[in-house]
Design brief:
The protein is mostly helical. The protein folds into two domains: about 50 residues, no CATH class; about 55 residues. It is built from three helices and no strands. The radius of gyration is 25 Å and the shape is flat. The model has no long low-confidence stretch (mean pLDDT about 80).
């Protein structure tokens, strides 16, 4: 039974600490309207509203970034095991890179990378 008491006391301590930190943050907040709050430590006045929209072009750039980010996620382990896998690993990775390149060529051809 002492094991349960230790777990319950630790859970109580965690809940109390969490409530205390939220209470301190609520008591020390600067403004009650988060949309008009000044940025912390930035030093510059905001030029746009806090919930302003981004241009649709940025979503395309973000998707391309994520595609190439995933490429790097898969290439690092590939470089670690290429000596064990042999030529099949090279063929698989270049197939993967060809599929990504086809996506970039398609986006380029459709004009998704044009800024004007």
């Amino acid at each position: 039974m002492s094991g349960f008491a230790a777990v319950l006391s630790l859970l109580g301590l965690v809940l109390f600490s969490t409530a205390a930190f939220y209470g301190m943050a609520w008591a020390m907040r600067v403004t009650r309207d988060p949309l008009t709050a000044q940025p912390f430590g930035a030093g510059l006045e905001p030029t746009e509203h806090a919930v302003s929209r981004f241009h649709v072009r940025w979503y395309t750039v973000t998707m391309l970034f994520l595609a190439f980010d995933m490429e790097m996620v898969f290439m690092y382990p590939w470089t670690r095991v290429i000596s064990m896998m042999g030529p099949s690993a090279v063929i698989e990775m270049f197939t993967f890179l060809a599929i990504l390149l086809a996506g970039v060529v398609y986006a380029w051809r459709e004009g998704a990378l044009r800024w004007a």
